[in-house]
Structure formats: C-alpha cells, structure tokens
Specification:
41% of the residues lie in helices and 14% in strands. By secondary structure, it is α/β, with parallel strands linked by helices. Bound molecules: 3-phosphoglyceric acid (3PG). Pfam families: Aldolase.
C-alpha cells in the first residue's frame, strides 16, 4: 500500500504542512514552495477552503498536492474528488484504510507505538507518519523503533523545526519530515512568497541519511 507514498516522500526532505485560509493565496503559495524545491505539499482539511485550495494548487506544474488531517472515509472521498494525489492521517482506522483502498487514494497513515506500527504493517503500510513527533519523544523515540521494526519508514511531523529536522533526517528509518514552519500564516496571508521560497529552498537543501 505504501509504494506511492514512499516515492512521494523520497522527492524532498521536507513536506510543508499547509493550513490555507484564503483561497486567493493557494496557487501562489504552491508555486513558491515548488519553485523553492519542495514539490510535495500537504494541505490540511482544517479550513473552509482546503478542498478548493487543493484544486487550485494542483494546477501548479511540478507539484504533488495531497490532503492532510484526513480522519474519515468522507474526508478521503472529498479530498480525492478535489484532486488530492495522496492523503495523510494522524492515525489509522479500518474505515479509513477501506475507503482509501476503495477509491485508490494513496494513504500515509500515522503510527507511534510499536503496536500501532505493527498494525499498520499488517494492513500493508510500511511508510508511516510519526505524529506528534516531538511530543512523543522525538528523534530518540523514532530511532528506537528502527531496532525491532527496521523495514518501516517514517515521516515525522509535529514540532519539527529547522533546528531539529537534521536529527530526524539523519535516522535510517526517516525518509522525510513534515512541518508547518515553511508556509507560515503571516507570510501566506501577506503573499510574501519570497520569504516562503527562501525557507523552502533551505529545507530542500537538508541532507538525508
Ligand atoms: C500536522 O498537522 O501534521 C502537524 O500538526 C504539523 O505540526 P507542526 O505545526 O508542529 O509543524
């Protein structure tokens, strides 16, 4: 189940997590991020305009726009209809797995404990989101999972910053990280694309293990 999400996660060291409030800013934001070197974008379904933003951002050449905060089968269906290429969830439920498989939407599900990871692997997923990364123990916690579960890869998200991102990216079981620091509310609201693009290119230059 994870072939496509793994390929997407391999495209850049960072997936910007986006909360878009003003639809008019969507396409410009996506353009700035893609130009800066971050082609894979996670648009969280946490704002009124999120689905329309996914539609608008999908028009940007070279981008791969997915939906984040996908919690239910209905979220997955709406995201897919809006053109999302993948779905990211903070967790994993049977209903969500079934829905994503039925509609053919690649899913990056969340798992943190060994039991959750084993359950995800049982369901066929070996590329997972590790959320909320910092709060559950950060890079040391994730490193510990590599011992018993070496074939599982992660995208840690939640509290990841430019400062701690290199610690995660140095781990053999981390493919990329996710974070909201690149597309800030302030710069997105103001359409300050130069600042966003600058942070994107710094993030794109981070080294991976
Ligand atoms: C998410 O939505 O996946 C995370 O909450 C993003 O976390 P951050 O804001 O700490 O980067």
């Amino acid at each position: 189940q994870s072939r496509q999400t793994r390929s997407l996660c391999q495209l850049a060291p960072v997936i910007p997590v986006i909360v878009i409030k003003d639809l008019a800013r969507a396409e410009g934001l996506a353009q700035a991020l893609v130009t800066g070197g971050l082609p894979v974008l996670e648009v969280t379904l946490r704002s009124e305009v999120a689905l329309d933003a996914i539609r608008a951002m999908s028009a940007v050449e070279g981008g791969h726009v997915g939906a984040g905060t996908v919690l239910t089968p209905d979220d997955a269906k709406r995201a897919c209809d809006a053109g999302a290429r993948f779905a990211v969830s903070p967790g994993l439920t049977d209903r969500l797995i079934d829905a994503c498989q039925e509609i053919g939407l690649p899913l990056l599900p969340g798992a943190v404990t060994a039991s959750e990871v084993m359950r995800a692997v049982d369901a066929g997923y070996d590329m997972l989101k590790f959320f909320p990364a910092e709060a559950v123990g950060g890079a040391p916690a994730l490193k510990s999972l590599a011992g018993p579960l070496p074939k599982v890869s992660f995208c840690p998200t939640g509290g990841v910053t430019p400062k701690n991102a290199p610690d995660y990216l140095a781990l053999p079981n981390v493919v990329c990280v996710g974070g909201s620091w690149i597309a800030t509310d302030a710069d997105t609201g103001a359409g300050n694309w130069a600042a966003v693009q600058e942070r994107a290119s710094i993030a794109a230059g981070l080294t991976r293990a």
